[in-house]
Request: fold
Amino acid sequence: MAVLGIRVLGDPVLRQMTTPVTDFGPGLQQLIDDMFETMHAAHGVGLAAPQVGRTERLAVAEVKDVPYVFINPEIIEREGKLKWEEGCLSIPELYGDVMRSKRVVVQALDRDGKTFEVEGTELLGVCMQHEIDHLDGKLFIDHLSFLKRQRALANWEQEKVKYPNLIRTIVPNEALDHDDERI
Ligand code: NI
Reply:
């Protein structure tokens, strides 16, 4: 397994539409394992393939110690509204309140290609919506009001100089604050 570099805001791969997965062979299994290792090293709860420079329609998550692999996921039910403060491993140090559905049901394939459904509220529900957004080339800042987005982008202009070539190298065991909601 390997910790992969995380692409940060400005890298065009984060804005690309992903491609449904059809090959569940060793290459995909390796990518899934590497994404879990990267997510853990970064203290994240979710990570989508574009964040490591890939275009597969794949995301991983771990909420309340339960690991999830979402391949070709779709939201098949949504209900209610919820405001949640989100962050993203690809936009370090920026946070913002996002309106999401309060409850979602996601249908996806697991790493063996079997269909499953999972219902999520609170962090799991928000995380699944955030990761599926990534697979459609969307980021949480896209959901902010115009003024809040402008402010976030202005802050990012200062933050992004820390990431040469728009790649964030994860240092395992790095001390982090606010480390429970980076998705
Ligand atoms: Ni994210």
User: Anything to note?
Assistant: The chain has one domain: 6-168.
